[in-house]
Amino acid sequence: MIVSLYAGILALMFVLLATMTIRQRYKHQVRVGDGGHQTLHQHIRAHANFAEYVPFALLMIALLEFQKTSIFTLHALGIALVLGRLLHAYGLTRGETYEGAKFTGNMNFRMMGMLLTFAVYIICAVILLMSWAERY
Predict the structure, then answer these.
(1) How far apart are CA 38 and CA 42, in angstroms?
(2) Which of 25, 50, 56, 120 has the fewest beta carbons under 10 Å from its own?
(3) Residue 97: DSSP 8-state
(4) What number of CA atoms fall less than 13 Å from residue 44's CA on the CB side?
């Protein structure tokens, strides 16, 4: 199964993001919340955002694979999802930060990451809806 490859890669990314957050918690001696530390907050959000977007995207890709969608399409979606999540996490945890302000991280990387992730969502949704419409 093709989705297994991307699920495995993304699972390792998830553990890496969790580890980065844990390291920040240890560094700042914060057990719950962010303790007012901007870098810890950024790592928490990178990890949480990953957890919010990846499962549903993988589910849609798995449904497409179950429906015998082309291998090219499945790999393109998987690669786009991995790249999108990498870019977003990098943009959120690296680059400029403004203490006390809402802007954190490198907005260009964050924006590119979200655009790729949303593209995966939209493409999957359109293919799934078209497939449903063809059957009914």
Answers:
(1) 6
(2) 56
(3) B
(4) 16
Whole-angstrom CA distances from 114 to 36, 74, 87, 96, 111 are 26, 19, 8, 18, 5
Residue position matching structure tokens 């499962």 = 55
The DSSP-derived string for 114-132 is HHHHHHHHHHHHHHHHHHH
Nearest to 2 by CA among 63, 48, 53: 63
Buried-exposed string 75-84: b where 16+ CB fall within 10 A, e elsewhere:
eebbebbbeb
pLDDT tens-digit series, residues 51-99: 999 999 999 999 999 999 999 999 999 999 999 999 999 988 886 655 5
What total number of domains does the chain contain?
1
- pLDDT for 32-58, tens place per residue? 877 777 888 888 899 999 999 999 999
Q: What is the CATH number of the domain that holds 37?
A: 1.20.120.550
